[in-house]
Amino acid sequence: MTSDDLTLRVSTPTRNGNGYTLSNARNLGGWQDVRFTRGVERCPSDFQTSMTDVYPMADPPDMQVQPGDFCEVFLGGDRVSTGWVDQFIPGFNDGSHTVTLTGRSKCQDLVDCAAVYDGFQLSNASVLYIAQTLAAPFGIRAALAPGTDQGAPVEQVVILAGETAYDVLERVCRYRGLLLYDTTSGDLEISSVGKATAASGFQEGVNVERAVAMYSMNQKFSDYYAIYQGLDQFSDIGGAPNQIAHLVDPSVQRYRPRVVLSENVMGGSVIAEDRAKWELSRRQGRSFLVRLTTDSWRDAAGALYAPNTLAPLVLPSLKLGTPQSPVMWLIAEATYKRGRNGTTCELVLMPPQAFYQQPFIWAQFGPDQTVQ
Fold first, then answer.
1. For 23-51, how does the pLDDT look when each residue is reduced to its tens digit (9 = 90+)?
2. What is the rounded CA–CA span in Å between residue 131 and residue 121?
3. For residue 8, which of 107, 80, 90 has the smallest C-alpha distance?
4. What's this model's pTM, rounded to 2 decimal places?
5. DSSP code, position 174
6. pLDDT digits (tens, 9 = 90+) for 119-147
7. Where do the Baseplate hub protein gp44/GpP-like second domain residues begin and end (predicted)?
């Protein structure tokens, strides 16, 4: 493998009960166009590769790829994804023929498939236990990132018939302010925000080819009402069956109400308030983000830019940081590309508070600006 070339290590799976065994491993390289994307809110990670020869260079040669093959994706010597080939797409035109492969990590089965659990209900279980229980049937491990506080056990989780495992876990993680994404081994990681910091960041005029900031209002609301559908209306603690939490975003200067349903059926007004906080924080964060393109996949220490990593930003044209005082934002998504336009990494960065439960207000414009 040469530096940062993409190589696919492909194996043939054979079903064994609800598991599988792998055989016939082979390496496929020589890809001309590469795209691979990971993100803290993008599960599973996915890739697409293509070339204009009949088949990629193989060891042994003449080895074909089948949809459903097990696949490990390497960028240089770093494994970045473990999963399955989704599509094998051959094609041709007057001057050439192409081969395209697409695939996703093992966590695709959590996203695509129904959650199956006897009784369809878990009670007084930790977030990690719930994740391990729902992921195990697919041969996927779940783990907490080092230093992550998963909070108190969840009182009750009801799995709806046909609901996917990822839908259940995403809902649980929302209440605990946790991120849920796949790892390079294709397994599931539960983490709090910003558990790592890049060795270098992004500076205008140094390693940023282009950057765009987005300041938006269309997805923000002035008043957030979270409705809790309780089941303890006959308890002795009082309170109505439907309890409402109300939060106000003072940055929205006209009346724009939004009502969100707190899906949890136990926990009272505290759960409803947490749901409203999450909704406000998420919309605030998404109203203020940066998309940039850099000419390398790696930071100064040689590590691939990875989601849930803090990186310093110095983009004075966008009023974000100075060389003396950079701003630390979170890499929310990273897309590695190589093709006719060379090697680039496209990143989406947001304030880390965008992923917290607590409400926050971001000043969208510098104090020296006047907007009429």
1. 999 888 888 888 999 999 889 999 999 87
2. 13
3. 80
4. 0.81
5. H
6. 888 989 999 999 999 999 999 999 999 88
7. 107-191
